[in-house]
Specification:
This protein is an alpha+beta fold. The protein is built from eight helices and 29 strands.
Length: 612
């Protein structure tokens, strides 16, 4: 079997997000039509399930559950209409303030350029130009559209508003979208997935903070090369209670999954809702998979244990029990031993260091002599730019944006900068977009380095490359940042959190989820940095968690390139651990625990130079 369900499921999540984004963008001033679905794939016969293939079949189906989890994750986990229409790339892709639909008529846009190439054209037939109503039709045609989010879109999507209740620009609403996609190609790197769909997506937050997303339809088909995966007559329901921490998640699914590469078709249904907390693996739930006079029941015992109950002849008697884990079924299994410990340490160091750098770097752009600081010094207001500004030490930045009040920044101000070799010891290239949540300032004209300030807001990096003396990192993603420069000569707090961020280092892409970095700095005491997150890497198999046990310390400021003390714990999916223990600013010790039983099985001596 050669099926890549996780890639296909990620494509589904992107497709669903597109539907959400287009509709909410239209409702707030954008533009959309009608369309048709692709050719229905001839159904396969039900396959025979046996002990030999039960694990593979179960793993393929877990990908169907991942649709619901991944759709929620890509929409930000805590879905609101504002998150879809106000802060995602979809708004950038489709917003057109000049598009106004006449009542009962069709309005259209000319092709709009996407950030890194290609175009998108949106048309709409709306009953009311100021609000969405049932029956409104929207069409978006993507022509190799690249918004710098890691994938390129090519194809057509047609939406019709099927249901609407409440105000979708608040936290409490219901929105139903009938979505049709025909040959919608989603290209990520060297892989292209083609989506054909006739589905309905319903977003229900009327019981906020309980959020329910329902994805249902007659057909949803993914094609990747020779691989084809098709859902028919399916319904996947994702429910999240974000009023508790971590959020409580329940998922139910039913339908038919058809794949020639898998060996045929299966019917599936949850017999007990799958439950999880936050991003942890599910801890409860059962899913029955039925084949040709055969079945396998996935029984989730707890977050670390799953039993597959295999009935090979459909007589209701279990013929074989298979013990496994949800991580293994979902392709997230990872381990740590002497053979990969150094590689794991290197990629965790690359990812955390790169993410930390991307957390710190945007804040420095508010210094008096750097691009955003210059915008403030120039007293620019309302819409401005593009304006080319010289960076303090080298290079330039082309800056544009909107500022409500000249000389300061206020809520919802926005700034964009395209860097070209900007900086001193670290040279920046790429795109940086910032939306202000709050900004306060204690102006000290005698301070030459920076105007003290406290900034909280959203920072989006698009292929933001930092070129240092020894290493280069490229970061892409969105983070929530807090830059407290108000007491520069006292404690200085810099922190950032991102639900999804990628760091490229040495041609290896490290993808981070739920990552955070926090730095405390003062001239006398030096800098302390702490990190936490989940990591997947092109170089590693599975998912690794990491968190600081004690902060990395640079003492004092500017005296050394590497920390002189600190400890970071890495945890694999099978429970194995790796402790990265800083001995001094050159030396590192790796303590490897294969089983997670607190017994160090291997110790590896290495250096910062080798890790970086």
């Amino acid at each position: 079997m050669n099926v890549k369900p996780r890639n296909l499921m990620r494509a589904m999540a992107i497709a669903a997000l597109l539907g959400i984004g287009i509709a909410t963008t239209i409702s707030s001033g954008g533009g959309g039509g009608s369309g048709s679905t692709g050719t229905v794939t001839p159904p396969s016969d039900l396959m025979v399930i046996s002990g030999a293939n039960a694990h593979d079949v179960s793993a393929a189906l877990i990908a169907a559950i991942d649709i619901s989890f991944d759709v929620s994750e890509i929409t930000g986990g805590e879905f609101t209409a504002q998150s879809a229409a106000g802060s995602t790339r979809v708004q950038k892709l489709l917003w057109n303030e000049n598009l106004t639909a006449k009542v009962g008529a069709t309005a259209s846009t000319t092709p709009e350029s996407c950030l890194f190439g290609g175009t998108v054209t949106v048309t709409a037939t709306l009953a009311d130009p100021n609000a969405l109503t049932v029956g409104d039709q929207i069409t978006a045609i993507f022509d190799n559209c690249d918004e710098g989010e890691g994938y390129v879109l090519d194809g057509q999507m047609d939406l019709m508003i099927a249901a609407i209740q409440g105000d979708i620009m608040t936290d409490v609403f219901l929105l139903g979208l009938d979505i049709m996609m025909t040959d919608m190609a989603i290209t990520e790197g060297a892989e292209t997935v083609v989506v054909d769909a006739d589905i309905t997506l319903t977003l229900d937050t009327l019981g906020f903070p309980v959020i329910v997303e329902t994805l249902a339809g007659s057909e949803l088909s993914f094609t990747a090369g020779l691989e084809v995966l098709t859902f028919t007559n399916f319904e996947h329901v994702f429910q999240a209670d974000i009023g508790v921490v971590p959020e409580a998640v329940l998922v139910t699914v039913n339908g038919r999954l058809d794949s020639a590469q898998m060996g045929g078709a299966i019917d599936y249904a949850t017999t007990m809702a799958v439950g999880a907390f936050g991003d942890s693996d599910p801890h409860i739930g059962q899913i029955l998979i039925s084949g040709d006079d055969s079945s396998v029941r996935i029984v989730i015992n707890d977050s670390t244990s799953v039993t597959l109950e295999v009935d090979t002849n459909g007589d209701g008697v279990i013929d074989e029990y298979i013990d496994t884990t949800f991580a293994a079924l979902s392709g997230n299994a990872s381990s740590i031993d002497s053979s990969n410990a150094l590689a794991v340490a290197q990629e965790v160091t690359h990812a955390s260091t790169g993410f930390g750098l991307m957390t710190i770097m945007p804040g420095t752009q508010f210094s008096k002599t750097e691009p955003f600081g210059q915008v403030q010094q120039l007293g620019l207001s309302t819409d401005f730019g593009p304006l080319e500004l010289a960076c303090e030490d080298a290079g330039t930045a082309v800056v544009s944006g909107f500022i409500d009040t000249a000389g300061t920044f206020t809520t919802d101000d926005s700034l964009s900068a395209a860097f070209s070799g900007c900086g001193g010891s670290e040279l920046l290239t790429g795109q940086l977009d910032i939306v202000v949540s709050s900004f306060s300032q204690d102006i000290d004209e005698s301070e030459d380095f920076t105007v003290p300030f406290h900034f909280i807001g959203t920072v989006t990096a698009t292929s933001l490359e930092s070129i240092g003396e020894n290493s280069t990192w490229v970061g892409s993603g969105t983070l929530e940042a807090d830059y407290n420069y108000v007491q520069y000569f006292g404690p200085l707090l810099i922190s950032g959190f991102s639900a999804s961020f990628s760091v490229l280092h040495g041609n290896v892409i490290n993808s981070l989820s739920d990552a955070s970095a926090t730095f405390y700095t003062s001239v006398e005491a030096g800098t302390s940095g702490s990190y936490e997150g989940q990591l997947t890497s092109d170089r590693l198999s599975g998912v690794y968690g990491f968190e600081s046990i004690s902060p990395y310390d640079w003492l004092p400021v500017g005296s050394q390139a590497s920390p002189s003390r600190g400890e970071l714990l890495v945890t694999a999916g099978d429970g194995g651990t790796l402790r990265i223990v800083v001995i001094d600013q050159q030396s590192i010790r790796l303590d490897v625990d294969y089983e997670g039983d607190s017994i160090v099985d291997t110790t590896i001596a290495t250096t910062w130079a080798e890790l970086l």
